[in-house]
Amino acid sequence: MTTLRYSLGDTGPAVNELRSKFAQLGLLRANDGVEFSDAPFDAPLDRAVRQFQLERGVTADGVVGPLTYRLLEEARWRLGDRLLSYSGSNPLVGDDVMALQRRLAELGFDVGRIDGVFGPVAENALREFQRNVGLPPDGTCGPATFKALARLAPIVTGGRPHWLREGEALRRLGPRLSGKVVVVDPGHGGSDRGATGHGLEEATVAADLAARIEGRLAATGVHAFLTRGRATPDELDEASRARFANDAGANLVISVHVDATRGTQASGVATYYYGIDRHGAFSAVGEQFAGLIQREIVARTDLRDCHTHPKTWDLLRYTRMPAVRVELGYLSNPHDAARLADPAFRDVVAEAIVVAVQRVFLSKDDDATTGALLLRDLA
Ligand SMILES: [Zn+2]
């Protein structure tokens, strides 16, 4: 199977098609050479791709691969273009679904996370809305529902009610770790080894770190599940990992990665949660959880603080619970690689992450200073 993949310098009909797609989205203008149908993938198109990726919350690398193609497909839908309803395991995804979710949320309905995916929560909210305005509650957004949606003025702004609900739902579970469900996802695996450097492979490092986290979580009474074992033969895509977490009924998800770049300069730890500024849609608990993991790791190690950031990568987007991806250091950097090779360092990181898990469930009053909580206090 050949994977679609286009970037600067490529030519051919697919590049022409990309050019017209980006022009339709308003990211390429006439003076960017849109009219030259046989032009190669040039600098203006590269800029347009990167801007689009940035706006959509994915890695802005200028490469149009499967994920960027999918996002381009989503971007062309406007609310009212097609009927929207819940279709089970293969849900409708697109900007029109995102617009519907935002609209319902503004009107005070519980749509769950605003993620552009038409799931069962969105369907319930839609039925509720239809009942409220005297339409048949069929859960299908058609012409009459579009009209009713457009007529009403918003009563709340943005995703605020959902942010509050998400936090409340988690805190209602209580502070004890015992009985909580946490999915730990080691990145890559199978034939996909991820980043490499200084004799280390990301897939192996991530699997070892995940096992250490899982062991510590289990010791506190958490039901901890790994998305893959050390020797899982097949590659798992991010959507399958998200499905695993949804099916497990996880309260939280932690995805473990390490990074690498071509040079040796880049270093440090960063954490990511579901979010996209442009749409005002994000996971508030995800952001909080990412911040906690980031702080605990930075407080306990000498890794550089590369902060927390919103992203829409599939694992973060398709999980129905707060999910965080950790990028723990760079295998291409001698300092980070030396740390990552050290089992004692991996233990410290695993402990930091378990403490962060504990903190998510604590109310502000019960919480201690960063770096002060120890694993043995949690069990
Ligand atoms: Zn990775």
Description:
The model has no long low-confidence stretch (mean pLDDT 90). It is globular, with a radius of gyration of 22 Å. The strands form two sheets. Strands 1, 4, 5, 6, 7, 8 and 9 form a seven-stranded mixed sheet that branches. The protein has a two-stranded antiparallel ribbon with strand order 2-3. It has three domains: 13-75, Orthogonal Bundle (Muramoyl-pentapeptide Carboxypeptidase, domain 1), CATH 1.10.101; 77-156, PGBD-like superfamily/PGBD (Muramoyl-pentapeptide Carboxypeptidase, domain 1, Orthogonal Bundle); 175-378, Aminopeptidase (3-Layer(aba) Sandwich). It has 379 residues and is an alpha/beta fold. The chain has helices at residues 13-24, 43-56, 66-75, 95-106, 120-132, 143-151, 160-172, 202-219, 238-247, 284-300, 314-318, 334-340, 343-361, 375-378; strands spanning 181-186, 196-197, 200-201, 223-226, 252-259, 269-276, 281-282, 305-311, 323-330. The protein binds zinc ion (ZN). Zinc ion is lined by residues 187-188, 194-195, 202, 257.
Count of distinct strands: 9
Bound molecules: zinc ion
Instruction: Show unreliable segments.
Output: none
Report how far the terminal alpha carbons are from each other: 49 Å
Radius of gyration: 22 Å
Secondary structure class reads alpha/beta
Count of the domains: 3
